[in-house]
Amino acid sequence: MKSKILVFIATYNEKLNISDLFYNIIKISPEYDVLIIDDNSTDGTKETLEKLNATHACLTVIHRPRKMGVGSAHRAAMVYALKNEYEELVTMDADFSHSPDTIPNMLEKLETSDFVIGSRYMKGGKSDYEGYRKWVSLIANKFARLTLGIKIHECTTSFRAFRVSLFNSLNLSAIKSNGYSFFLECVYELKCVDAVMTEVPIHFKDRFHGNSKIPKTEIFRSMYKLASLFLSRFYKIQTDLSNPAEIRSSCYLCNSQCVVEINHGNTINDTVGAQAYKCTSLEHKSKPQVINCLVCDLSFVPESSYPKNIETIYAEVQDPTYLLNKKSRYRTFQKSLTQISPFLADKGNLLEVGSYCGFFLDTFKKKYNDWDYIGVEPSKWAAEYARNQLKINTRTGTLEDNIKDLSSDYDAVVAWDVLEHLSDPSAFLIQINSVMKLNGIFCFSTLDIENWFPKLMGKHWPWLMEMHLFYYKTDTTEQLLNKAGFKILGAEKYIHYVSIHYLVGKIIAILPGWLEEPLNIARSAMPQKIMIPISFGDIKLYICEKEEVVY
Ligand SMILES: [Zn+2]
User: Fold this and answer.
1) Cα torsion for 335, 339, 342, 344, to the nearest 10°?
2) In degrees rounded to 5, what are phi and psi of residue 37?
3) I need a surface site. Which of 54, 115, 324, 364 has the fewest CB within 10 A?
4) How far apart (Å, rounded) are the C-alpha atoms in residues 186 and 166?
């Protein structure tokens, strides 16, 4: 039978401490399960954990692909405890600064409270910190107590015990900090849901092996967090994000259930039709539900939140507005072709997937007349336009529909603004791999939300829209590509050229409705011909190489 108590430790380069700590914990009670989340350690911690994992059923190890932050690891552990129906969760550092012997005492206290924290600053507590670290920690905790109205003496240590049922009311989607300020934010949110909080005195020892990993910038982050939490006491905005307890979906990429909601979504129209899936769609006010995986960091729209017949919808898309912006589209493709040119040979064959009205291929054939080329496009209307108006060799349908009739040795494949629209990008990339020559070049553009612009705009970011199902960061894009046998050779900003006229139309679509009419009048007076490059870095162009065959 599964234990009801979970002890959690986050690791990053803790090879010298982690085995001893693990054995010390399981020695206390056979009732404890242990969860360790490792952020891609480079000192052999990973291998040590794998050895322990192979011989101890009570241990679960989660390897994350990169350093995603200690706060994010703790949040993942809290969601893990909730989803795996543990009753109590204990969290602690990996470096022996917290003594495992205190765990039983904390669990005892948890019988009459919701949350217990190991406290250095209450009577009987002690800290071995010296110098500036001592004073920063002491002052931060005093300040937090004073400004946030928290009754306990300690808010920042990670040595904690939670009653897991508390996570049904403590909304883990709403906690934002990924670094050390998570610990403060978490205590403040606990206070806001009226959790019963208790502290037990601890002797906080300086780490046994290795150096402290708290970067100095974390001090400023914590100060900023403290100030923003203080202000939120006066204007706390109710979050609309769903609690992870209510999210049934697991991660598309790593299958983890440790997911939180990052955008609640407000699908205005239940019967989202082909209208919202046009390239020039202005349906920016209708936003999808987006969830983020705390293990691999992928952000995506859960399958339950978008129409099942998405391929039929794309097949039916008609978009005459796109043709009105023909000039700016050609300009955009001329630029991307310049960016990928250094990777293309003098001769070869190229496939474009999602070739729409054929503007890229038309640009390509003029510059590369020794190349063979073909386009594949789901929209019947767009494919017909490419064939009839531009005489571009285009097949109608998805890549999957056409794969049997395509060559299997393309030198280059391109897919502009496609990857974020697909319901199964992994399968798509594997299909691309299967039609390419080894060492062939695959170029594409897609979203990058690890960028200042989407961060600044939040839910008003214009590319957060119904037709986009995946919101990548360079790291998650790379994980997907590697799985499909590709390696990234280069990544650059993707530059869209737009007419001022079109841009203003997009801006109007984001602004409140009452501004629409006056701005549309102003827009009609604007020149249609002037084009400007738009490149915030939130759309990236990737150049990749097929380095292995994947089936
Ligand atoms: Zn994941």
Assistant:
1) -70
2) -110, 120
3) 54
4) 12
Rounded distance from Cα 294 to ligand 1 centre (Å): 7
- Give the tens place of pLDDT for each residue, 48-86: 999 999 999 999 999 999 999 999 999 999 999 999 999
Cβ neighbours for 270, distance < 8 A, ≥ 6 positions apart: none
Q: Which tokens go with 223?
A: 């100060």
How remote is the CA of residue 454 from the centroid of ligand 1, in Å? Answer: 21
Task: Say whether pLDDT at 273 is over 70.
Answer: no
464: exposed, middle or buried (C-beta count within 10 Å: 0-12, 13-18, 19+)? buried
- The residues that bridge with 436 in the sheet, in sequence order, are 410
d(CA 246, CA 200): 32
Grouping H, G, I as helix, E, B as strand and the rest as coil, residue 326 is helix
- Residue 271's pLDDT band (boundaries 50, 70, 90)? low
Indicate whether 175 pLDDT > 90. Answer: yes
> Residue 29 Cα, ligand 1 centroid: separation in angstroms?
31
pLDDT, tens digit, for every residue of 300-352? 999 988 888 888 889 999 988 889 889 999 999 999 999 999 999 999 999 99
pLDDT of residue 62: 98
- Res 191: pLDDT: 93
Q: Quickly list DSSP for 185-232.
A: HHHHHHHHTT--EEEEE-EEPPPSSS-----THHHHHHHHHHHHHHHH
| CA 298–ligand 1 middle distance (angstroms) | 6
The residue type at 311: E
Q: How much distance in Å is there from the Cα of 240 to the middle of ligand 1?
A: 23
Mean pLDDT of the 354-376 span: 96
pLDDT tens sequence across 84-93:
999 999 999 9
159 Cα: distance to centroid of ligand 1 (angstroms)? 26
Q: What is the pLDDT of residue 214?
A: 66
- CA dist list (Å): 226 to 143, 171, 183, 201, 217: 8, 19, 11, 24, 14
Q: Say if CB 493 and CB 535 are below 8 A apart.
A: yes
| Cα three-residue angle 111-112-115, rounded to 5 degrees | 85
Answer yes or no: is pLDDT of 381 > 90: yes
- What is the pLDDT, as a whole number, of residue 506? 73
CA of 250 to the centre of ligand 1 (A): 8
Residue 62: strand, helix, or coil: strand
The single-letter DSSP state of residue 255 is -
Residues counted in the chain? 551
480-485 contacts, C-beta under 8 A, 24 or more apart = 480/253, 480/425, 480/426, 480/429, 481/429, 481/542, 481/544, 483/426, 483/429, 483/550, 484/426, 484/429, 484/430, 484/432, 484/433, 484/550, 485/430, 485/433, 485/546, 485/547, 485/548, 485/549, 485/550
| Low-confidence winner among 293-302, 308-317, 374-383, 517-526 (lowest mean pLDDT) | 517-526
